[in-house]
Fold this sequence. Notes:
The chain is an alpha+beta fold and about 400 residues long. The protein has three domains: about 5-95, Acyl-CoA dehydrogenase/oxidase, N-terminal domain (Butyryl-Coa Dehydrogenase, subunit A, domain 1), CATH 1.10.540.10; about 130-235, Beta Barrel (Butyryl-CoA Dehydrogenase, subunit A, domain 2); about 255-390, Butyryl-CoA Dehydrogenase, subunit A, domain 3. Helices cover about 45% and strands about 15% of the residues. The chain has eleven helices and ten strands. The strands form three sheets. Strands 1-4-5-8 form a four-stranded mixed beta sheet. The chain has a four-stranded antiparallel beta sheet with strand order 2-3-7-6, with no helix packed on it.
Amino acid sequence: MDLDLAPEDAVFRDKLRAWLKQNLPQAARRRSVSEGEAPGARLAAMKAWQRKLHAAGYVAMGWPREYGGQGATLMQQTLLSEELVRHKAPGLVGMMGLQMVGPTLIHWGTEAQKRRYLPPILTADELWCQGYSEPGSGSDLASLKTSALREGDHFVVNGQKIWTSNAQIADWMFCLVRTDKAAPKHAGISYLLIDMKTPGIMIRPLLQMTKDAGFNEVFFDNVRVPVENVVGGLGQGWAVANTTLLHERNMLGSTTQTQNIFEALLRVARTTLRDGRPATEHPVVRQRLAALKIQVEAMRLNAYRNLTATLQGKKPGIEASITKLVTCELNHQLAATALDLLGPYGTLYRGSKHLRDDGFWPYELMFSLGLIIGGGTAQIQKNIIAQRGLGLPRFK
Length: 396
C-alpha cells in the first residue's frame, strides 16, 4: 500500500482546496444543529450549493462523461469526498440521486431513462427518495407487499412504505413493488420510478427523537405509473435493488467523517475538567480515548486498503458492509464518550443558553443510532460479513 499521492492527484487535491477556500463562504459552512431556519430557505441554499459544485465539475465526478460526470478516477473521487468533509462543506441535498439511483440507472437503466432522469439529479432540480421498507418488511425486505398490477400501459400501485427519508421534499421515488404475487418472493419484485406528484400519494412525516421529521410514511392509493418506469425489466427488482443498496452502504459509512468526529471529541476532552484537571490527563479517560483512536485509525487504514485493492482491479466483496457497520457504530461510541465527559450540560439539545458545542453531541448520539439501523441493520451486516465474507454457515 502506497500512502503517497501521485503527482497528478496532488495537483487535483490542491486545486480543489483552492476552489473550496474561494467558493465556500463562512455562511455556507455546515450549520449547527441548534440553529433555527425556515425549511424552504435551507432547501434552496442546499440546492444552490449543489449547482455551484456541479458547475465547477465536482458533482458525480465518477459518472461517465456522456451522462454529465467527469469520468474521474477513484482516487480523485475519494479526495473530493475527503476534502468536502474536512472543509465542513454543506451536505449535498441530492445524495440519494447522486449516489444511489443515479449509479443504478447508469448500470440498469435504458438509454431513454438515463437521458430523462440523470441530468436533473446532477443539478438538484429533481430530488429522490427510497421506497423500500414497509411496516412489516424491514430486514426481510423481500417480504414487501406493496403491489403494482398492470392495466394497459400503466401499473396501479397500492400499499405503504415507511422510514422514507426526505419523502416530504422529494420529486421522485425509486420504489420496490410486487408485480407478480405468484412468483417466489424475490422473483416477483420490480424496481419502479414513481413521480411523487402523482394523484393517490399521501405523505405523513414521522417525528424522530432528534425533533426532526426527515422520515415519512408514504401511502399509495391506486397510483398510476407508466410501464416504461420499470428499471432493469419486470421481476428483476431484487437484483437492481442490491446494486442500489451497495451504493447506499458506501454512502452511509464515511471514515473521514468519523475522523472529524474523533477530533471534535478530543477538543471536548482537552477543555473539560475531570478531578480538577483537563480530562485528557485523567488515566481512565486517556485509556478510553486511546481505545477509540485505535479503532478510528484501523478504519482509516482499512479504507486505504480497500481503495488500493479497487485501484488494482480486484473485485469488491464485503468491504461496504464492514465500513458501514464499523463506522456507524463507532460514531455512536464517540458521541456517547463526549456526553460522558460533558456531564449533565452535555445532554442539552436545543433552546438553552448552556448548550455545549451547539447541541451537536446529543444530536449525533441520536442520529448515529438511526444510521446503525438504516441501509441494513448492524445484525444484517454481520450476517453478510459472516456468510459471504468468511464463509460461515447460516444459523439454523
